[in-house]
């Protein structure tokens, strides 16, 4: 043991690695301040530490690296930490609490995204747009400084222009705060935020009323839809829009379909990456089977619906959707095609469990559904019935014959 001075530390040798190649460490303790020491690693780093019994257990707490701190600075910090321990406190707990209280909204948001392993890239992108568009000026603020009044005012400001956007922004904000309440604690192990400030909107009933969209294609509009899609310049977009209508898939699920996911022998296709995380397999009705066979003859790439602009899948074809909307004389959104599929299936009296499987819906509270083993072949007739209904009302049955 010796006093940890600069000249003494500079003379200390670097320990060699262990025989198995792992790093080695040597401890040097200060003889003038009990509990103060230096750790020298085989990588050349030298780090100051304090070692003391805290709450019945011996703890070694890092002070900082030699070079970043002088021996004098490290000794002063060690004396402060040892004094804190002497009065029954844990300096590391206090340090974590101080960090938690200083965490910025931006850091809390990034931490939330890092922890949520189930979020898809598209969802993360939407969350970032939401935060950048609605809370950009809050990013450098400490999380604990964002008050209920601030939340209520910001909700009202956004809502004066876009009520639905205001509600969505607050849902994202609520999720970030819920995560932070569970993670960031004070020195007593209590949450640094005891109440989610977004909860005021519920208690004061300040949420903007919103109606679920019910737009879809009615049977007499299917013919106009087929005519409008037939007029599109890019046949991939035409087939993509029709594929959505005949399958009820979400737009990204269909756009990311690969040829490796299509089995012509079994007359099925699969979506491995879905919204609820469960792979989804459906049978191909005759119309879609012929469509995909026709596409495969002229497509040697990876994607069933390739982008015309880059080596990847088709992105949301906004211009094409606008063109179809103008041609039909009514607004059209891609999710309208999913609603149309669902409505047609229900009108054909397809059993509820079959319909759930066709849409890849799951209900955590439905105990009976947990005992039903999904059989793709059982969905073949329901899928064909939906396709027949669409074709009957679209007056486009000749395409199935021509492509065959």
Walk me through this protein's architecture.
The chain has 404 residues and is of the alpha+beta class. The protein has 3 domains: 84 residues, 2-Layer Sandwich (Double Stranded RNA Binding Domain), CATH 3.30.160.390; 102 residues, Orthogonal Bundle (DNA polymerase, domain 1), CATH 1.10.150; 185 residues, Orthogonal Bundle (hpI Integrase, Chain A), CATH 1.10.443.10. The protein is 47% helix and 10% strand. The chain has 17 helices and 7 strands. The strands form 2 sheets. It has a 4-stranded antiparallel β-sheet with strand order 1-2-3-4, covered by helices on one side. The protein has a 3-stranded antiparallel β-sheet with strand order 5-6-7, with no helix packed on it. The radius of gyration is 31 Å and the shape is elongated.
Q: Give the CATH level 1 class of the largest domain.
A: Mainly Alpha
Unreliable runs: 367-373, 397-404
Quaternary structure type: single chain
Number of E-type strands: 7
CATH homolog superfamily of the largest domain: Intergrase catalytic core
Describe the global form.
Answer: elongated
What sequence of helices (H) and strands (E) makes up the elements? Answer: HEEEEHHHHHHHHHHEEEHHHHHH
Largest sheet strand order:
1-2-3-4
Label the CATH architecture of the largest domain: Orthogonal Bundle
Describe this structure in a few short sentences.
The chain is of the alpha+beta class.
Attribute tags:
single chain, about 400 residues, alpha+beta, Double Stranded RNA Binding Domain, DNA polymerase, domain 1, hpI Integrase, Chain A, four-stranded antiparallel β-sheet, three-stranded antiparallel β-sheet, 7 strands, disordered C terminus
